[in-house]
């Protein structure tokens, strides 16, 4: 126990450095969530479209990104693709955001598609009877209702992105995980730095889960009123 306490005292000056990595973690998750939402919306519209080509491309995209490991996608994007096209050095954080966003888009497309399918069919029929075009109907009538229904699921996706973002340490992005590894190597002690990062991840996820629960309860009350 004394040795453990001594180890924590040794790394104490570096604890703020580890904790500040949370902003990198949340930045990657937020950027990826925005890309994932936009891409997921487009893919979901393609999936419910009557155009077979768009439908097939969207389903193929989803199958590829949901059927392969995220860490493999990240490695391909950071190591293989730049070498293939002779791009030289690429920004690891940018690659992480784009890769996570592309991956999230595949999952978000299914969430949004289910939200659209859950909207009362009468809404579609009423819009058609009023002569509202397909895209205006989706933008102004269907999607707002669908998004309201799937907000809790979207929050869960953001929480998943936040947790999964730890793998960006494999491409040297200085998030919390990577910073804890750097401090571990600096002081030749692994438990204290890793434990600090572990607790911070847990606290952030607890906070995001709490926010998601509040959103879900508020939506439930609004539906009942």
Automatic annotation (TrEMBL):
This is L-arginine ABC transporter membrane protein. It is found in: Cell membrane. One of its GO terms (biological process) is amino acid transport. It is a multi-pass membrane protein. Pfam families: BPD_transp_1. CDD domains: TM_PBP2 (cd06261). The chain crosses the membrane at residues 17-43, 64-81, 187-211.
């Amino acid at each position: 126990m004394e040795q453990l306490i001594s180890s924590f005292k040794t790394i104490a000056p570096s604890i703020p450095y580890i904790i500040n990595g949370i902003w990198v973690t949340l930045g990657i998750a937020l950027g990826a969530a925005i890309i994932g939402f936009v891409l997921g919306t487009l893919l979901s519209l393609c999936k419910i479209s009557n155009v077979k080509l768009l439908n097939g491309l969207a389903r193929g995209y989803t199958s590829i990104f949901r059927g392969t490991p995220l860490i493999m996608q990240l490695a391909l994007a950071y190591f293989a693709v730049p070498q293939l096209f002779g791009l030289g050095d690429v920004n690891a954080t940018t690659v992480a955001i784009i890769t996570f966003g592309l991956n999230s888009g595949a999952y978000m497309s299914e969430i949004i598609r289910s939200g659209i399918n859950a909207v009362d069919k009468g809404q579609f029929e009423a819009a058609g009877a009023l002569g509202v075009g397909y895209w205006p109907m989706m933008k102004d009538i269907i999607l707002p209702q669908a998004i309201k229904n799937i907000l809790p699921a979207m929050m869960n996706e953001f929480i998943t992105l936040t947790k999964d973002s730890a793998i960006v340490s494999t491409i040297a992005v200085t998030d919390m995980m990577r910073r804890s590894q750097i401090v571990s190597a600096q002081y030749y002690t692994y438990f204290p730095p890793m434990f600090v990062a572990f607790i911070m991840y847990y606290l952030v996820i607890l906070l995001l889960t709490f926010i998601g629960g509040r959103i879900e309860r508020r939506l439930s009350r609004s539906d009942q009123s």
